[in-house]
Amino acid sequence: MDTSTRSQGIHSSHEFISMFEMQLTKREMNVIMAEETENARYDLFFLYWAMKEAFIKAIGQGLGFKLQTIDFTIVPSSSQGRKIVSGSAVMTMNGIVRHDWRFRYHALDDRHVLAVSWGPCHEAVTSFKLAAWGHEKKINSHRNADPQVCDEELKDLIQVIDIKKLCEMVFKE
Q1: What pTM was estimated for this model as a whole?
Q2: Coil, helix or strand at residue 147
Q3: Domain count, the chain
Q4: Of the candidates 59, 68, 99, 102, which lies 20 to 30 Å from 148 by C-alpha distance?
Q5: What is the residue range of 102's domain?
């Protein structure tokens, strides 16, 4: 996600971020607006937006999903000065903390952040499962499988992913 995006005709971070008040929770808006500088507000907004986007992409839902039903708490693991470089996030959905979903992020450079999410396979929409697993038999096996078995398979895969190394591979010159 390009964190340097600014809309023409918008004169402040407050004006820009207010356009998204139907997608952000009140708490998220308050946390963003509490930042001291314009750039810090933009950076934090795009970090929240990247988390929301990672989730809706993981379930195959898209922007039709009601984004205000999910609220993220950002948990930085490293920073440079006041700028958050990498970390994780905790998602609350409809007031319930979802420990079965995991979120990681890493700043690729001063302008881009990568967000990755993973969670219960059975929460993906059917059309997304069809695209991901290829045919109805696999979809049915995942739909009818014990969700813990599916999630354990996913956890095994995720444990080998190092976001920083992934970024380095993707953006190798």
Answers
A1: 0.74
A2: helix
A3: 1
A4: 68
A5: 13-170
